[in-house]
Amino acid sequence: MIHRSVLRKCSILGAFVLFVLCGNATTNSREGEAWLKWSPEGRRTYVQGYLQGLQEGFASGCRFGVEGGKPEISYDEETKSSKECWSHYPVNYKDPAPFIDKITLFYQEYPTEQSTPIAQILKELYRGGSLSEFHKNHLTAVPKKD
To answer: For residues 15 and 61, what is the distance between their CA atoms, to the nearest angstrom?
Structure first.
């Protein structure tokens, strides 16, 4: 059984990862405008860097969660706890090219969604969602301005 401090730290890490993936819904930045101005190589670099940062942050959190609460743990216990933590990793690496194209398409097809954070779109795409469903659900989730 995993030690409570490991679960607590993994829960905190999970909440942080969700915050990062979901982005900040109140942002006034227009990430879509910036995205559409970037070169294809810039877009690829952004997505690869985002995913690499997410993976490295998650790995550090897992390591800290496994090692943090105990002075010494056995190799078997560390391996078991590490596998448990990694089973909650939110993104499996895939070729970023189709996702890059879909992010571009989203901002082109829905110009009123320029302030939607790239991270939110990435999250939806990695979950297997469609752009049109995301757009529809996103519109109903965002309060309308008077």
So the answer is: 12
**Tell me, what's the pLDDT at 146?**
44
Contacts of 137 (CB under 8 A, 6+ apart): none
Q: Could you tell me if 84 and 126 are in contact, meaning their C-beta atoms sit under 8 angstroms apart?
A: no
Average pLDDT over residues 53-73: 77
Query: Helices 97-109 and 118-126, interaxial angle, to 10°?
Result: 120
pLDDT at 71 over 80: no
Chain position carrying tokens 């679960």: 7
Domain spans, the chain: 4-141
